[in-house]
Design a protein that fits this description.
With 150 residues, the chain is an alpha/beta fold. It is 19% helix and 26% strand. It is built from three helices and seven strands, in the order E-H-E-H-E-E-H-E-E-E. Strands 1-7-6-2-5-4-3 form a seven-stranded mixed sheet, covered by helices on one side. Strand 4, helix 3 and strand 5 form a beta-alpha-beta unit. About 7% of the residues have low confidence.
Length: 150
């Protein structure tokens, strides 16, 4: 378990980008934290490092958004060219993991060309792969966060 404290939005974004550099594909990342803790902001940092140019925002009402790469030059960065997609899921409104199954989200878990990030992952933990990497994000102050990686 790693514990990281960031003292500004800029530091949180830098941490997310650095975290993304280690992604190879097939990862499922579960984000846990209160409203406004920075789950979507963290996802934006990962997406930015992966070279996704599309605006990344919370999929609260649509539950799942898929950000595809069109080519390594214009989508995901060349160093990550085998990654074809970032799947961003928000489980806040789900009653159970079965709701995710119904929309086909589980089809993306473990795909070697995809990274899946799930906000409110604690709500559907039972259906997530055992290898899911969890990041708990907590507000300490206005821009200060603690990120606990498990």
């Amino acid at each position: 378990m790693n514990k990281i404290i960031t003292n500004s939005s800029k530091e949180t974004l830098a941490f997310a980008k650095n975290f993304a550099k280690k992604l190879k594909g097939g990862e499922v990342i579960g984000l846990v934290g209160d409203l406004g803790a920075g789950k979507t902001f963290f996802t934006q940092g990962v997406a930015k490092e992966l070279g996704i140019k599309t605006k990344v925002n919370s999929p609260t009402f649509v539950i799942m958004k898929i950000y595809n790469s069109t080519s390594s030059a214009d989508g995901l960065k060349a160093k990550s060219s085998k990654l074809k997609a970032l799947v961003h899921i928000d489980a806040y409104r789900l009653k159970s993991g079965h709701d995710l199954e119904a929309i086909g989200a589980l089809d993306y878990f473990g795909r070697p060309d995809t990274v899946v990030i799930i906000e409110w992952a604690d709500k559907i933990k039972k259906i997530l792969p055992k290898k899911t990497k969890y990041i708990n994000i907590k507000n300490l102050e206005e821009h200060k966060r603690v990120l606990i990686i498990k």
